[in-house]
Amino acid sequence: MFLRFEQVSLHFSGVAALSAVDLEIPQGGIFAIIGPNGAGKTTLLNCVSRFYTPQEGRITFLGRDLLAARPYDLASLGIARSFQNVAPFGRMTVEENMLVGLHHTIHSSALSQVLRLPGARAAERQARAQARDVMEQLGILEHSQRYADELPYGVQKRLDVGRALVSRPKLLLLDEPAAGMNEQETAELGEWILGLPAITGVTIVMVEHDMSLVMGISQRVAVLDFGRLIAVGAPQEVASDPAVVEAYLGKED
Amino acid sequence: MTNAARPRALAATVALAALVLPWVVARLGPAASYMLNLSVIFAIVAIALNLLTGFSGQISLGHAGFLMLGEYASALLTLKAGFPFWAALPASALLVGAIGFLVGLPAVRLSGNFLAVATMGFGLAVPEVMLNWAGLTHGSAGLMPKSPTIGGFSFGSDVAYYYLALFCLALVWYICATLLRSRTGRALQAVRDSEPAALASGINAAYHKALAFAISAAFAGVAGALYAHYVNFVSPNDFSIQDSFLFLAMIVVGGLGSLPGSLLGAVLLTVVSQLSTSLGQFSIILTGSVMLLAVLFFPGGLISLARRRRPTPRVPAPLAQRSAAGGS
User: How many CB pairs lie under 8 A apart between chains A and B?
Assistant: First the structure.
């Protein structure tokens, strides 16, 4: 199995954020995790990112125990993520943001970089060429020397996903990609995300509030409510599930 | 003139002016020459502190401590271990850098006010240790390191020492500029902007924070060694917590996250604080006023007047709305 949660439980000082979550996410396509506010969606994502450690249970990625990994090991395991707050590296240029995404693929010591040794320069050149290619694909090459904070919201969003994608990860975690976007922007973003797995071969796990985005682009959906997994399945199945309607969709309408 | 050529022409002009400057300043008397040399030495400290605070997002109120460690390291290595100055200078940098790494290790768990207090504690402790470890440091009697020499030439004059300090400043500047454009420099800035996002990008945040402390301390150590062999006297009274605040003021006034800003702030505040020393306590008030005015009118530092806007940290409006709504 690609990504597997087994009996994952996490509580913050007595309050259960996740209770015995069992979930299997297959390779390929887009998998969405939805649920009302406070359902534990981002918490689940943060367990994969290793910002949180569940008190019980296991999380494995391609058979590997993720709970034994440190947060900064994940990039080289092939797991990347975006964040709710766009352009986290706001005071760095677009190009620098992309190069941060390639950090774990550049192997040179601080000293060899300062001395500009041939090996370090070659690694840097290669990374810049790779960043340039991806910026061109994303249509943000013209902004490469601008600070991320100066860019329009939609471009920042694309930059952040681009930064996560630039090192060609196997798994991409998206934390509420449509947050702060209007209907039209969300639709454009959805179309763009939908195309990513086919182009890059990446598997996307997305946490999202916006139901239209989730229903439109994901192959499978898991629903969390108060830290419990209440449904998994195709978007239409899940949408008509009585438990889901009660927990989430009913309140939305 | 193209966009790329303009900064280069400016840099060349500044470099040329820097080479002629000591001869002009010398006409104003020895006090002016002293102020000039002190400005160059403090510019090294300002760059070191800006690397840590402006580029890596970690505050330090203990850089006077690193400066003093550099003074003592170089003075003791030359006087007691028989090192020539030229070996003692890099050795002091390595030694103070190693101490900086050790100070940085616990500091990586702290941030903001807690880090300020912790580093301030370090800055307060160093002079006390130097005062009380009299067997090594001669306590308040101090040490008298000699001026550096090459062959028969002594760097005893203000003008000669200026060029030595300027060379060190140029070297430190070059190393920082190169580092900041490299993988390691990007990692430092990424950790400053968002630690979780940096971790998710594969950056070992704790290591890079400690590394920033080490590099910053090493450069402050270089400045300390330069100061010691310039004034030829080292004592526990040389630098205090007030100087740590002065260094912080330099980079805030000049521009956080800017190398030219560090230089600008260092020169301005060295001159202001030196000119006002005769005013006693009013010197602090004057320095404080300069800092206050600069922060009020140029929140991006004086350097923001000279270049395009560097975004200052802010909470984007949609994010503020979202956190008010509460994430899941």
Answer: 136
Q: For residue B284, count CB atoms less than 10 angstroms from its CB and return exposed for 0-12, middle for 13-18, buried for 19 or more.
A: middle
Q: Is A181 within 8 Å of A157 (Cβ atoms)? A: yes
Gap between the Cα atoms of A69 and A65, Å rounded = 7
CB contact under 8 A, B189 and A42: no
CA distance A20 to A12: 15
**Minimum Cα–Cα distance from B172: chain A residue:** A114
Q: Across the interface, do B202 and A104 touch by the CB < 8 Å criterion? A: yes
Please tell me the distance in Å from A40's CA to the nearest CA on chain B: 6
> Which of B196, B204, B318 lies at the smallest CB-CB distance from A180?
B318
Contact B328 A38 (CB under 8 A): yes
pLDDT of residue B3: 56
pLDDT of B6 reads: 75
Query: Using CA atoms, how far apart are residues A73 and B73, in angstroms rounded to an integer?
Result: 38
CB A160 within 8 Å of CB A192:
no
For residue B325, the chain A residues in CB contact (below 8 A) are 37
Query: What per-residue confidence (pLDDT) applies to A252?
Result: 46
Q: What value does the mean pLDDT take over residues A62-81?
A: 96
CA distance A146 to B313: 16
Q: Average pLDDT for consecutive 10-residue bins of chain B (328 residues)?
A: 69 91 94 96 98 95 97 98 97 98 87 88 96 94 95 94 97 97 96 95 95 97 98 96 93 94 95 85 82 85 72 42 38
Looking at B134-260, which runs of residues are DSSP E strands? 149-150, 153-154
What pLDDT sits at residue A244?
85
Rg (CA), chain B: 20
- Sheet containing strand A79-81, edge to edge, reads A79-81, A171-175, A203-207, A30-34, A220-225, A228-233
